[in-house]
Fold this protein.
Amino acid sequence: MAWIILIAAGLFEVVWAFSMKQSDGFSRLWPSLVTVGAMAVSLAGLAWAMRTLPLGTAYTVWTGVGAIGAFVVGIAVLGEELSAMRVLAAALIVGGLVLMKLSSTA
């Protein structure tokens, strides 16, 4: 269950990153409120997952899911650049996440 909560928390990290971008430096009310709410849910999920998962594993997976999710949303929704170098970087992050999961005993 901790892994499911951790992945969900990582997805909420993507939500808050995207809504923070949409908030235009916290100058727009609704995206700013979504940012703060998603941050709270994301951090609460991370904290819950850390009750059973090791710190290094939980934090690495949480930030990795957020990073890859933000990368995908940036390209798919915001029209950010898709280049071979960026895809390679994302693939390396995913590889690190897989290794972190495989090395975890929890």
Notes: The chain has a mean pLDDT of 96. Residues 2-103 form one domain. The radius of gyration is 15 Å. The longest helix spans residues 55-76.
